[in-house]
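Reviewers asked in the last cycle whether our approach scales beyond single polypeptides. To address this, we selected a multi-component target totalling 717 residues and predicted its structure end to end. The input consisted of the following lines:
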Amino acid sequence: MTLEELELIAKGVHQDNAKYDYEVNVCMDLACASQGADKLREALQKAAQSSGKKILVRKTGCMGPCSSGPLVRVDPDETLYASVKDANAEAIVNSLGGKPIPELQCDLNEHFDKQVRVVLENAGHIDPEKIDDYISRDGYKALLTALLEMTPNGVIHRITESGLRGRGGGGYPTGLKWSTVAKASGDVKYVVCNGDEGDPGAFMDRSVMEGDPHRVIEGMAIAAYAVGASKGFIYVRAEYPVAVARLTTAIREARRRGLLGNSISSTAFNFDIEIRLGAGAFVCGEETALLASIEGRRGTPKPRPPYPAVSGLWGKPTLINNVETYANIAPIVRNGGKWFFNMGSERSKGTKVFALTGRIKNTGLIEVPLGIKLREIIEDIGGGVPGGHKLKAVQTGGPSGGCIPADMLGLGVSYDALMAAGSIMGSGGMIVMDDTSCMVNVARFFIEFCMTESCGKCIPCRAGTAQLYTLLTRICTGTGTLGDLEMIEDLCDTVKSASLCGLGQTAPNPVLSTLKYFRNEYIEHIVHKRCPAGVCNMEAAVSAEPAVEVHA
Amino acid sequence: MPAFTPPPLPSDDKRWKIVNGTMRKNGFARHALIETLHTVQSSFGYLDDEAIKFVAQSLRVPLSQAYGVVTFYHYFSLKPPGKHTVTVCAGTACYIKGADKLIAAAEQKLGVAQGQTTKDGNVSLMVARCVGACSRAPVVLCDGEVRGEMSGEQMLEQLERWTVE
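The resulting structure, written as C-alpha cells, was:
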C-alpha cells in the first residue's frame, strides 16, 4: 500500500458516494440501538428502495446527543433528526429534495457550537465496519506518511511538540513515555492499548472503538513504528462485545489491505495486533495489573519501578496508552504538533472527550477543547439540569475522582485545575448530580465500588476501603458520630499514601472531596439524623441498630 | 524432554471442540488461559470443575492458578445461569437515576438476592458494573438485550412474562 493507492481508494469511495443524491446516516451506537435504531435502519432502507430516489443509508457510530436518540442525519443538508421511530422512515425519505420535517428536527446548535471534534471527527460520518470509509476521510495517511517520510525520532518529536498528555486520566506526557520506550534496550517491544474502561459512568472509549476502530489501530501502528515494536495488544472489557467485534473486523480488514502485517508499505516495518478480553476487574485499568491480565494471570498490580516502559509484558519494554490517546495520534501526525498545541489551555493541550450523564438534559458524548469552563459544558452543551431541580455537583474521574460543587462552575477543565479542586480529569466520565442526590451516599457508593474492586494485594486498600465503607454506612443509617468524621479523614490519609497502586491511592478522593465541599450534609446526617436529599434510610437510627461490620 | 500431549476432550460434546480450538489457535500457550475460560463460559454458560481442570491440564497451568484466575474476575461464573437473566446496571449514572430501587424491586419480586438464580432455575438476577449505555440510564439488560430508561414497572412486567412462560 502506498500513499497513491490510498488516494485511489479514497477517490473510489467519493465516486461511489457521488452516485447518491442523499446520504441518510443512522446512529447505531449502543444508546440509539437500545431505542430501536436497528429497525429504523431497515425501515429507512426499505423506504429508500421503494422511493426510486438515489439514497445511501449508512450505519454510523455515536453522533453525540444520545438523549435525543435514535438519531438520523441527512446529508448533504446536515439535517439532524431526533427521537426517530421506524414509522417516521417514509416521511424522512419523502422529505428528501424538499423541506425537512420540523417536528423531528433537532435544534441543538448550542450543544454542537462549543465542541471541537478531533477524536470524534469521523464518528457519525463513516460506517465503522468499512475500512474504505475510514480511508476516504484521510485514514491511514498519517501511518504511511510516518513510515515513508519520517524517522521514528521525528514521529516522537512531533508528538512531544503537540503537548499531548495521556487521556486515561493520569495525564503523563505522551511524547516522554514514547521516548522512554524507544530508548529502552531490547529486540522485542510491545505496544498495548488500554481499552479496559472500568470507570462506571464513562463510555468514551467504547464509542471510539465501536464508531472509529481504525483510528485506534492507526494510532497504535504509528506508536509501534516510533518505539520499535512489532506486536500490539488491545485489551478490551468483555462487557463491550460490539467493540470487540468491530475491532476484530477492523484488524482483519487492515491486514487484508496490507496496513497490518509484514513489510507494511514495502518498508522494513512489521506490525500486528491481537485483541485480549478483560473479565470484569476494575483494577485491570492499572497498567501493571493490565499486563498481568494479558499474560493470563490474576490482575494484581506490581510495585513500580521498574515501569512497563522498561520491563513490561513478559519483561520486555512495553508502551501502554489509553484508547483516546491513540485516537489523537493520527491527526497530530497529519496536521503537525503545533496545530494540536494551539488548542486547549496552557498546560493541557488539545481536546477531551467526555461522557456527559446523570441529571442533565442533553446526555451523551461530547468533545471540547481543554480549558473550557465547566459552566459552558453543563449549561450550554448539556442544556442544564431538567425538571426544575438545582445543580448540586459534577463528578469527574469516577471512583478515583471527586465531586465539584455547583459554585465552582467557573473552573476551567484541565488536568491541573481539576486536581487542585480535589478531583481528577480521569478517563472522561462526567456525571451531573442535582438536589436529589445525597453526597454522603454518593461517597459510600464509590467506596463500596473500590472495596469490591480492590484486588486484595495490599492491606491499606483492602482493609481501608472496607473500614471506610463501614464508617460511611454508619453515617448513612444515622448511627454515625462526629468522631467518625475524624476517623474517616485519618483513614483516607492512610489509604491514600500507603496503597500500592492507583486504585487505592485515589479511592479516598470521592470521600475527601465530598467532605470538603459538602461537610454540612455529613453533619446533618450525624447530628440531626436527617438526609437532606431524602435518599438515606434513617430508620435504623431510631431502632439504634449498629451498622453491619465488614471484614476484609 | 518428551513432547507435550494435551489431555483428551472430557466428552464428545461438540462444545469441547470449540474450547480446544481457542487453545490450539493460541498454540496451547499459558497466557491463553483467560481467553480459553471466556470460550468455555460462552459455550457452556458457566465454568464447572471439569472444565477448569481440563483447561488447566491442556495449558499446563497449575490448577490452583486456573482456579485463582476464575475467582478473581467477576465475569466468570461457577454456577449455571438461569433460563433467563436480568442484569441491572449499577454504574454511577444508573445509580444516580435510581438503579438501587430497581435492584430492590427485582430482589423482592424474584425472592432471591443479586447474583442468585430463582429455585426453579428460571431467572438469574445479576448486577453489572457498567455496560456503557450511561446516557440512557437506568439500564437493564434482559437476556443480554440493552433496554434504556427502564422503569420499575417495565422491569417487573418483563419478569412477570418470564414467570408465566
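Chain A has four domains: 20-107, 138-341, 354-434, 439-543. We regard this as preliminary and will revisit it once experimental data from Aim 1 are available.
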